[in-house]
Design brief:
Layout (H helix, E strand, L loop, with lengths): L1 H17 L8 H12 L4 H7 L7 H10 L3 H6 L2 H6 L4 H13 L2 H10 L2 E5 L7 H4 L7 E5 L19 H12 L1
Helix pairs in contact: 1-2, 3-8
Amino acid sequence: PAIEILLLSCRTYARLYYGVNPALDKPEKLIYIWKAMTAHGDKKFLAALLTVPGAGYETIKKLKEHFSSCEEIWRAGLSELQSAGLPQETALRISRARLSVEPDAEMARLDKEGITLIEKTDAAFPSLLKEISWPPQWLYVKGRANLNSTALAVVGSRKATSYGREATERIIYE
């Protein structure tokens, strides 16, 4: 039964990530897909949590102080989330998200778009950014970049004005 579950999980992951439903008849295919599934570890649960409205820095910080991992947070019941100090509405949103958000699928979506989720504790997190007074705890990075080399970052509002978008395009183009 455990092997059947593993095969089903690998097929599901391959279908989500690669858009195919492979016949996993060769052990090397199974090993490759299993490695891809487990490579993201706890980060896939963080990515899933970040899709929940209201689950931002303060909420996740509070939860990480109470639980040992993002996976444990993701799997926690409503009463456990509330005992960690979450308001009922936020705890309900996280509980409901488990019905519609699959952590492996969320990581597959990010991977497919060429987006990497980098936590402040990761070696790839920009060292200079760690030094500011209120550094972000995670970054979404599209493409491949050495974030510890000389760089220009454009930081803006989620609800940018048309002028803000225009000005940003001009700055980046130059």
